[in-house]
Amino acid sequence: MGKQLTSLLTGPLMALAALLMFAEEVLWEGAKRLMAVLGTLPIIRSIESRIGSLPPYGAAAVFLLPGVLLFPVKVSALWLITQGHALLGLQLIIAAKLAGTVLVARIFVLTKQQLMTLAWFAAMYFVITKWRNTLYAWVRDTSTWRALHALRVTVRAWAAGLAKHWKPGRIGRRFRAIQRRHRRAAFR
Fold first, then answer.
1. From CA 41, how far away is CA 46, in angstroms rounded?
2. Cα 106 to Cα 99: distance, rounded to the nearest angstrom
3. CA–CA distance from 91 to each of 57, 76, 94, 100, 122 (Å)?
4. Phi, psi (deg, nearest 5) at residue 145
5. 25 touches 149 (CB < 8 A)
6. pLDDT by position in tens, the chain (length 188)
7. Which of 11, 14, 42, 169 is deepest in the core (most CB within 10 A)?
8. What count of other Cβ atoms lies within 10 Å of the Cβ of residue 18?
């Protein structure tokens, strides 16, 4: 019975894992682009340079900060769900999860060197990375992953072809004109 259940569940669970990994890769690329744009802002650059210069335990505290700050948001989302607002609560949990992941990833990039000097952190990082790489290798061998990857390549090629025919500067010019109007209005 146990082997039958395992073989019955393996296919759908592998498909789900492949779908989640695919979504993570696509979202990760967008998050990296967003953080690169935000990183050009002077206030963000200043905050990032301060975070990057923290000592190891300060870096560990900042690394845990997004989880601590988003905990009340997630509790509020659960409260919304219990009050009959399931869709709103779910949206809030997803938004908090995405924001937290992006923040933790950026903070990790900024503090990795300091964090790796902490023996307990380096050991956890090694174990988690080894487990993740094994899982990813296992999922990437599935037909679902290969199909999703092929779809991604096709969509990217289609989007690149579409971008050739699109007027790229039009939206940017409009946005800059709006910014100029707002600046002029602020000085009046």
1. 9
2. 11
3. 33, 12, 5, 14, 34
4. -60, -45
5. no
6. 567 656 665 667 767 777 677 777 777 777 777 777 787 888 988 998 999 899 999 999 998 998 899 899 989 999 999 999 999 999 998 888 888 888 888 888 889 999 999 999 999 999 988 988 888 888 788 787 788 888 878 887 887 776 666 655 666 677 677 777 766 765 55
7. 14
8. 23
74/160 Cα distance (integer angstroms): 38
The answer to whether the predicted template modeling score (pTM) of the entire model surpasses 0.90 is no
CA 115 to chain centre: 20
DSSP string, the chain: -HHHHHHHHHHHHHHHHHHHHHHHHHHHHHHHHHHHHHTTSHHHHHHHHHHHT--HHHHHHHHHHHHHHHHHHHHHHHHHHHTT-HHHHHHHHHHHHHHHHHHHHHHHHHHHHHHTTSHHHHHHHHHHHHHHHHHHHHHHTSHHHHHHHHHHHHHHHHHHHHHHHS-THHHHHHHHHHHHHHHHHHH-
Measured CA angle at 59 (ends 54, 63), to 5 deg: 145
**Which residues lie closer than 8 Å to 34 by C-beta, 6 or more apart?**
102
List Cα–Cα distances, 55 to 61, 90, 121, in angstroms.
Answer: 10, 37, 14
Distance, in Å, from the CA atom of 93 to the CA atom of 73, rounded to the nearest integer, reads: 8
